[in-house]
Amino acid sequence: MPTRVHEFVWPDRVVIGTVGVPGARTFYLQVRSGTQIVSIALEKQQSALLAEKIDEILYQLITVEGNRFSVPSRTPIELVDNDPLEPVQEQFRTGAMSLGWDPTTAHVVIEAYHIADVDTGDNSESHDHDGAEVPEMLLVRMPVGTARAFAKRTRKVVDAGRPICPLCGYPVDVDGHICTPPEV
What we know:
The protein is α/β, with parallel strands linked by helices. The chain has a single domain (4-159), classed as Secreted effector protein pipB2 fold (2-Layer Sandwich), CATH 3.30.2450. Helices cover 19% and strands 31% of the residues. The protein has two helices and seven strands; from the N terminus they run ββββαβββα. Strands 1-7-6-5-4-3-2 form a seven-stranded mixed β-sheet. Strand 4, helix 1 (44-62) and strand 5 form a beta-alpha-beta unit. Helix 1 packs antiparallel against helix 2. The radius of gyration is 19 Å and the shape is globular. Mean pLDDT is 88; it is low at 118-125.
């Protein structure tokens, strides 16, 4: 069965954002081009790793003699996006992801694949005319400046979670925290 691809080339907006309070947040990768918006759920760790690996790609490209791809060393101010997510309608939950570089277009490429939920009863997935689940993926191609801004925002969103207890190193919940300090 063919995969339904949600493809965005040079999107108007590509961001990581959350819904919920720290400790109970759901992370979303949201992409918009014109009126087309796709929001996919992913894990906090996937978000953090995505930002880290995008930065690695961009820093490697900067070291290329002459920086022929015009990779900015800092986030261009006009690309900073601190706005909240647009209304979220989850397309799918992400399983595997891949990240790459396309030198022919000078784009960072993100691929995110749907993870099949077993026994969830989730009816938000795409189905074909026979009722069978249609596999989905998100394909995003973004220029280097947008990628730099995306990584910066993602790190900020990931770091905005619960504070870490200085005694035990675990997150402190909003309703309190009890820990046993490590023995000396």
